[in-house]
Amino acid sequence: MAIKMDRKYSLDDFINIVEALRSENGCPWDRVQTHGSLKPCMMEEAAELLASIRIYDKTGNAENMREELGDILLQVVMHAQIAKEEKLFTLEDVIHEISEKMVRRHPHVFGDMEANDHNEIRDNWEEIKKKEKEGKDWIESPLREIPRELPSLVRASKVLKKMDKLYGISTDYSINIDNMRENIEKLAKYNPGEKAEGIDEIIGDIMLQIADISRQYKVNAEQLLNDRIEDMIDKCESIEKP
User: H-type helices in 60-198, by residue range?
Assistant: First the structure.
């Protein structure tokens, strides 16, 4: 398949390019990819897009963000192409479903419902989302619906929030602090290099308590840790080597 490089490509052109890559005479690497084998690629591309947004915020240059959005689009089109070959669904089905969802979840824009503020919009969104999920047999339980593929601190915060909302199970701030003190006292009894049986459970409990305190203060623990890592790198690399 000959491709001219001297014109502006459209979405249809890009779909044809991916189809060609997956064809009998296409690229040996692209042809053998599956939904499962592409999972690490989607994780990497999502992280790279987030990095490009950070770069844009810092420099005002959107070139990298444009490139990374293209890489995410490649993942979407590639998965849709594989699904088409497997006779599961097509890219047109994907576009139709997300368009329907956006119209359905915005009755204050596409319907006659009124919403006076962001809280009402969010409440409507959550109620519509809840109805959409009724009868979906792949959802194991309300708490396991939160993907385990999320970064652990993000997942912990979402699970804790849902436990509070659905089951009324939440830990008071002062109890969290007391539990952390107790766990830190236990941690202080360990010595690096010696047998550390049980230390993983203590550290895990402390991280859960930190996630819960962050949730109560409405701060993103994952972002906070990343920011502190950045500060640490800046501090370390600003020290002149002897």
Answer: 63-85, 91-104, 107-110, 118-132, 152-167, 173-188
